[in-house]
Write a structure and sequence with these properties.
Number of helices: 10
Bound molecules: 2-phosphoglycolic acid
Strand order of the largest sheet: 1-2-3-4-5-6-7-8
Distance between the termini: 12 Å
Number of strands: 8
Strand content: 5-15%
Largest sheet: 8 strands, parallel, barrel
């Protein structure tokens, strides 16, 4: 299965910067074997989708509401993202779980809504530093997988240890291998054979310098990249590491 390299631009870039970043990625992406995705703020999805029209780089949102439409001031629905040109959406990112009190149940509802809108969801899971220090990381991730993924599930899972996000710390290759192996087992337990083909991304301080090693670990199906995705050259370098891996 082709690896997926997804850029999570978070709350960065004005419109012109987002378009320039997308153009920079497109300019460097020739001949890359990995599947590429960029996720700007919802406000810039349409402009970025337009800038990437005719390329194979997909565009995604960073969240969507669980309802198709309605009285939800400030929220954005799956059909709106799809209409703007997105084909993917990140759901349950730890910054949403922490800053917006998103629960596994809500993330499952959002995942269902995203799929119904024609978006491929990337559902994020991952333990905090305290949970890992307490030896609870697999238990926590197991609960998140059980609670956040609807049955059947057609999407991607991203393992992002919360303590590795934006910190420059990455999990060791051995820890990533152990966790991705555990997630694969859980997916097969939940979904049977269909669970074998769900891609499992790693996220958390992925950089050009560590990408090749991380992407070569068994059961790592790609990367969800935050900070380094804001630099087109770095993002493309990570994608080239996927190709090599
Ligand atoms: P980071 O973010 O690469 O800056 O650690 C990853 C993420 O939050 O998706």
């Amino acid at each position: 299965m082709r690896q997926l390299i997804a850029g999570n631009w978070k709350m960065h870039c004005l419109a012109s910067e987002a378009v320039a970043l997308a153009q920079g990625v497109a300019a460097g992406a020739q001949g890359i074997a990995a599947e590429l995705l960029v996720c700007p703020t919802a406000l810039h999805v349409a402009a970025v989708a337009q800038a990437l029209a005719g390329t194979s780089i997909a565009v995604g949102g960073q969240d969507c509401h669980q309802a198709r439409q309605g009285a939800h001031t400030g929220d954005i629905s799956g059909p709106m993202l799809r209409d703007a040109g997105a084909t993917w959406v990140i759901l349950g990112h730890s910054e949403r779980r922490q800053n917006h009190d998103e629960t596994d149940e809500l993330i499952r509802e959002k995942t269902l809504a995203a799929v119904e809108a024609g978006l491929t969801p990337i559902v994020c899971v991952g333990e905090t530093g305290d949970q890992r220090a307490g030896g609870q990381e697999t238990e926590v991730v197991g609960w998140q997988l059980a609670g956040s993924l609807p049955k059947p599930f057609s999407g991607v899972v991203a393992y992002e240890p919360v303590w590795a996000i934006g910190t420059g710390k990455t999990a060791t290759d051995a820890d990533v291998a152990t966790m991705h192996g555990f997630i694969r087992e859980e997916l097969v337990r939940q979904f049977g054979d269909a669970g074998r083909t769900i891609r499992i991304l790693y996220g958390g301080s992925v950089r050009p310098a560590n990408a090749a090693a991380l992407l070569a670990i068994p059961e790592v199906g790609g990367a969800l990249v935050g900070g380094a995705s804001l630099n087109a050259q770095d993002f493309v370098a990570i994608a080239r590491a996927a190709q090599a891996g």
